[in-house]
Structure formats: structure tokens, C-alpha cells
Predict the 3D structure of the following.
Amino acid sequence: MANSGKDLSQTDVLVVEDEAMISFLVEDMLRELGVREVWLAPAVTAALDLLKTKRPHVAILDINLNGESAYAVAERLQESGIPFMFASGYGRSGVSEEWAGRPVVQKPFDLQGLSAALEQCLKV
């Protein structure tokens, strides 16, 4: 396992990403890190619907979902106390000021970058 120490075997992750190839790549990376469940949502509505029935331990949000901002999902996660990070091709500069304190991984990211961002999100 490439994970730097945190046991993720009981961790469920929501991935909100509109590009299927990237979703599957992130899912593969998360599986390699040892997470228990990965739930994929390609759009804001799909993510919000999923959150009605499932409670992930952490979420990874692409900011731009086919022209729609993921900030509505971020708001729901924040209200629910679920930690999350953003994934953006623009890095931190792609995140609005309101969410500037959240972890950001810049696309394309590697396994180590994802692992570090996950650990930052899951610190309690």
C-alpha cells in the first residue's frame, strides 16, 4: 500500500467527477490506498441524491462539473460535518475564496498527492 500510515480500510469516499475516465482512475487510486467503499457521482444532482442515503467519511469534489459548480455539494457536506477536498486543474487558484481553507489536489495528481490530501481531510 502506498498509504503513509493511516488505515483507510473502514473509510468510504464520495468522488464527484464528471469525466468517467478520471472517476475510474481516482477510484483505482483510492482502492490502492485501501479504502472500503468508493461512490461515484458525475453531477451535482447525483451527488446530492447519493448524500440522502449514504454518508461518506470524506469526499473529493471536482469543482467544475460539466459547467456546473460543485459548491452546492460542498455546502451539503459542510452542513453534514463531512470532510472534503477539491480536485481542480487550476489548483488552489480554481477554488473560490469562501472555500480557500479546504484541501486542494491539482489535477493531474498522483497516488502520493491523493494520499496526503486524504490524510489532511481526515485529521481529527
Summary: The chain is about 35% helix and 20% strand. The two ends are 22 Å apart (CA to CA).
